[in-house]
């Protein structure tokens, strides 16, 4: 508007532009940029709120000053992001503006990804103050994401009800909120006892109870609904396998379980690298459907059941491996799980169940790491 040949850009005429009270500070910052060629130093510090930078973008678009737009986008890219920054960007940018500016669209996509990465582990993050401060749109974004991790959908619903309760004191309003968000729940991820649980009978579910019951009934009668109602990802992996340790050293392999986009299995074998041979236990990852993120960290615990108490005993303590480690080695474990030779383990009453088998288990969990600052897009 100011530089594009319109009447407002005519240097020989007085320029009258309409600036709202909400735009005043941003407009003054734009004028400063036009005269000095740079943004105020304060805007590059943590003291500047992301809302302020967004208001600069909106004013730059209104008055069509592309150099100012570029400077603000650069400032946003270089900023060390917080959750509140990503939330502001995800909510406050008009879609029409992101379609006009590919660089801005990439930033908004990055902001939404940041929110999902921060809160995808429901059990670990949905009780935090930062989660309870999220807006309606951001919670919808999380519920719709295929990256959301929860062992059961009951966990998602419980945490969601807490979030709803912080915004709506009236029961009827909470019912309305549940009805609005319920279509984003995943029926296939509810546990078998959900319909008989106290959670299912809560009054907040009055408007959706019949629909949920109908959805669960549909799942039981139609396999094709797996695509319509995909389950949630789990943040944890657990595989147990009972093994008869024989003199031949037969390798025992569990069924493969899909987790983090990969197929995992537990394997128990006679490990001849030791003399005498020992009991080896390993967690294997098969040919991946998608590559593991190299920087992801996975905590692994191997356990063995003891008798007659039927309690689980940890094997050699926890271990943490990265996605890059599994990409290179394909397995993690111990070649001497029971601290005794294979032949001795075959007779170890401490570990043998009434059927003469030893029960091993592996538990793996993605280690949650707080997202670091924004990476330039």
Automatic annotation (TrEMBL):
Q: Which SMART domains match?
A: BACK
Q: What InterPro entries does the record point to?
A: BACK, BTB/POZ_dom, POB1-like, SKP1/BTB/POZ_sf
The BACK domain, residue ranges: 96-200
| Superkingdom | Eukaryota
Q: Give the residue spans that cross the bilayer.
A: none
One Pfam family name is BTB
Pathway membership: Protein modification; protein ubiquitination
Q: Any idea what job this protein has?
A: May act as a substrate-specific adapter of an E3 ubiquitin-protein ligase complex (CUL3-RBX1-BTB) which mediates the ubiquitination and subsequent proteasomal degradation of target proteins.
Q: What is this protein called?
A: BACK domain-containing protein
Q: Which organism is it from?
A: Klebsormidium nitens (Green alga)
Q: What is this organism's lineage? A: Eukaryota, Viridiplantae, Streptophyta, Klebsormidiophyceae, Klebsormidiales
């Amino acid at each position: 508007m100011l530089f594009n040949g319109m009447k407002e850009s005519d240097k020989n005429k007085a320029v009258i532009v309409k600036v709202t009270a909400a735009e005043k500070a941003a407009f003054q910052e734009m004028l400063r940029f036009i005269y000095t060629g740079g943004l105020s130093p304060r805007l590059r510090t943590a003291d500047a709120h992301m809302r302020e930078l967004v208001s600069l973008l909106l004013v730059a678009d209104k008055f069509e000053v592309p150099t100012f737009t570029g400077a603000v986008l650069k400032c946003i890219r270089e900023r060390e992001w917080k959750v509140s920054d990503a939330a502001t960007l995800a909510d406050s940018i008009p879609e029409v503006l992101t379609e006009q500016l590919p660089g801005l669209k990439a930033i908004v996509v990055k902001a939404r990804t940041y929110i999902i990465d921060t809160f995808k582990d429901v059990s670990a993050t949905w009780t935090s103050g930062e989660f309870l401060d999220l807006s309606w749109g951001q919670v919808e974004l999380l519920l719709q994401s295929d990256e959301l991790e929860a062992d059961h959908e009951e966990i998602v619903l419980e945490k969601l009800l807490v979030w709803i309760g912080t915004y709506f004191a009236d029961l009827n309003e909470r019912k309305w909120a549940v009805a609005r968000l319920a279509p984003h729940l995943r029926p296939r991820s509810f546990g078998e006892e959900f319909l008989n649980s106290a959670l299912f009978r809560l009054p907040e579910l009055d408007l959706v109870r019949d629909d949920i019951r109908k959805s669960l009934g549909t799942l039981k009668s139609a396999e094709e609904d797996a695509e319509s109602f995909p389950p949630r990802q789990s943040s944890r992996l657990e595989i147990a396998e009972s093994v008869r340790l024989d003199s031949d050293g037969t390798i025992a392999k569990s069924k493969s379980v899909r987790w983090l986009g990969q197929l995992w299995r537990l394997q128990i074998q006679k490990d001849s690298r030791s003399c005498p041979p020992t009991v080896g236990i390993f967690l294997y990852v098969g040919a991946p459907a998608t590559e593991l993120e190299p920087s992801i960290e996975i905590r692994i615990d191997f356990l063995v059941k003891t008798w007659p108490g039927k309690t689980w005993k940890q094997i050699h303590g926890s271990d943490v491996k990265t996605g890059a480690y599994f990409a290179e080695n394909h397995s993690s474990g111990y070649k001497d799980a029971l601290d005794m030779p294979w032949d001795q383990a075959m007779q170890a009453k401490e570990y043998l169940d009434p059927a003469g088998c030893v029960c091993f288990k592996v538990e793996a969990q993605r280690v949650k790491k707080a997202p670091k600052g924004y990476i330039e897009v």
